[in-house]
């Protein structure tokens, strides 16, 4: 047996219509699959033992855990929240010269500009004819049986080519820069659906009609960890993909030291509080429901439904004074005071691979606790809830990503 576990996600144009994965994730855990006991059991009166059953509603569901990367996190937030506005901030370069010398069949060079936009690299000879291109995930593949192959690091612009012809005036065309994706919650009760490709060592399970019911993110002293919960319709087994055929982004997972947290009183300027944070969690629940999409003439839901959007979180902070308690109370006592609403901003920095910002514009502190034990160091636990601000029309959550990738 070969250990080969992966998860791919691709947006469906029509609910329950299978879509190819836009990308794949190397997951920490995959718990998605068929429902338990998807049957109707008839309880008749002839004896003590059941004799009859029929096929019942069938809705696959589960969860996936992984460490997040900017390259695909914007896509997952799009599936979660529903609205996306993309701005193309890339620039095109044509005819950048990288010739070979006499007898030289290999080249290693760095593009003049970076980061290179995945899927935009083209190598041409002096004819000019296209002899190779990149596949959008770091491989350079031949065109027209040229025999040219290689790799490209999009963030650094490093290109490695082999199978070239000596004394040839090769040139390259490519784009560089990032795409800005601004994702906000939709008011539509119809969530975006997607197909999940789950590699399970011996086979790939494709789960159709999936919608995201919850995303949880957490960061302490390890990676920026993410868990998504999904629910959907039917599934099927297909041949498992080879690792070489997976669409894996080049960016490594985001570690805790590339995550920053800022806070402010609502309406005031943000200030960095990263050094005060021991852990941060955020839970985003969409109220998704596939059972509500069941009808007649099919075991599977015809659609999915989304209800209230609920965003809550928690922070463990170093305990220095009573300032957060006073924010929770709204003063030095809870009597007669209004809680101080806050603004929180989580920033993700992936260097040349891009960045992300999660803005919680209006936050209500729900609880504050300090629980000393013996002589151990004390922390303070704070729970919060994100709210919509009707006055400024600030969203309950805005996710902004500058990423190398732009999948439909």
Please tell me about this protein's structure:
This protein is mostly beta strands and 408 residues long. It has helices at residues 70-81, 323-329, and strands at 5-11, 23-25, 29-33, 39-42, 52-55, 61-67, 82-97, 107-110, 122-124, 130-134, 139-142, 149-153, 158-162, 171-185, 194-200, 203-219, 225-231, 235-238, 259-265, 271-272, 277-285, 310-318, 342-349, 354-370, 379-387, 398-403. The chain has a 24-stranded antiparallel β-sheet that branches. The protein has a two-stranded antiparallel sheet with strand order 4-5. The longest helix is centred in the N-terminal third of the chain and has 12 residues, at 70-81. The chain starts with a strand and ends in a 5-residue tail after the last strand. The relative contact order is 0.18.
Helical content stands at under 10%
- Total helices: the number is 2
Largest sheet: 24 strands, antiparallel
pLDDT averaged over residues? 96
CA-to-CA gap between the ends? 35 Å
**β-strand amount:** over 45%
| Weakly predicted, low-confidence segments | none
Secondary-structure map with pairings?
Layout: E1 5-11, E2 23-25, E3 29-33, E4 39-42, E5 52-55, E6 61-67, H1 70-81, E7 82-97, E8 107-110, E9 122-124, E10 130-134, E11 139-142, E12 149-153, E13 158-162, E14 171-185, E15 194-200, E16 203-219, E17 225-231, E18 235-238, E19 259-265, E20 271-272, E21 277-285, E22 310-318, H2 323-329, E23 342-349, E24 354-370, E25 379-387, E26 398-403
Antiparallel strand pairs: 1-2, 1-15, 3-6, 4-5, 6-17, 7-14, 8-13, 9-10, 9-14, 10-11, 11-12, 12-13, 14-26, 15-16, 16-17, 16-18, 16-21, 19-20, 19-23, 21-22, 22-25, 23-24, 24-25, 24-26
């Amino acid at each position: 047996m070969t250990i080969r576990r992966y998860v791919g996600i691709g947006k469906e144009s029509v609910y329950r219509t299978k879509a190819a994965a836009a990308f794949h994730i190397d997951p920490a855990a995959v718990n998605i699959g068929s429902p338990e006991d998807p049957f109707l059991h008839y309880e008749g009166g002839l004896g003590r033992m059941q004799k009859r059953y029929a096929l019942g509603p069938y809705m696959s569901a589960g969860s996936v855990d992984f460490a997040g990367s900017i390259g695909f996190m914007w896509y997952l937030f799009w599936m979660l929240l529903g609205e996306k506005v993309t701005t193309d901030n890339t620039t095109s370069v044509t005819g950048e010269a990288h010739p070979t010398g006499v007898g030289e069949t290999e080249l290693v060079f760095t593009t003049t500009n970076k980061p290179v936009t995945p899927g935009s690299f083209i190598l041409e000879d002096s004819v000019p004819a296209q002899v190779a291109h990149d596949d959008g995930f770091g491989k350079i593949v031949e065109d027209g049986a040229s025999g040219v192959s290689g790799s490209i690091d999009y963030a650094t612009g490093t290109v490695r080519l082999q199978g070239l012809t000596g004394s040839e005036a090769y040139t390259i065309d490519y784009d560089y820069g990032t795409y800005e994706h601004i994702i906000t919650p939709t008011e539509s009760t119809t969530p975006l659906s997607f197909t999940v490709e789950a590699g399970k060592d011996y086979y790939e399970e494709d789960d159709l009609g999936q919608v995201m019911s919850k995303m949880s993110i957490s960061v302490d002293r390890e990676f920026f960890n993410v868990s998504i919960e999904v629910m959907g319709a039917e599934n099927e087994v297909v041949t498992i993909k080879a690792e070489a055929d997976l669409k894996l982004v080049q960016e490594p997972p985001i570690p805790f030291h590339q995550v920053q947290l800022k806070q402010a009183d609502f309406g005031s300027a943000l200030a960095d509080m990263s050094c005060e944070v021991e852990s941060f969690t955020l839970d985003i629940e969409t109220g998704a429901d596939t059972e509500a999409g069941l009808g007649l003439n099919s075991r599977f839901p015809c659609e999915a439904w989304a209800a209230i959007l609920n965003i809550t979180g928690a922070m463990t902070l170093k305990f220095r004074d009573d300032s957060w308690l006073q924010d929770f109370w709204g003063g030095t006592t809870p009597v007669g005071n209004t809680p101080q609403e806050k603004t929180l901003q989580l920033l993700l920095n992936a260097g040349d691979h891009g960045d992300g910002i999660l803005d919680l514009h209006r936050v209500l502190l729900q609880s504050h606790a300090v629980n000393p034990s013996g002589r151990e160091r004390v922390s303070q636990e704070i729970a919060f809830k994100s709210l919509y601000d009707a006055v400024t029309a600030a969203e309950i959550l805005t996710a902004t990503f500058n990423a190398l990738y732009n999948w439909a």
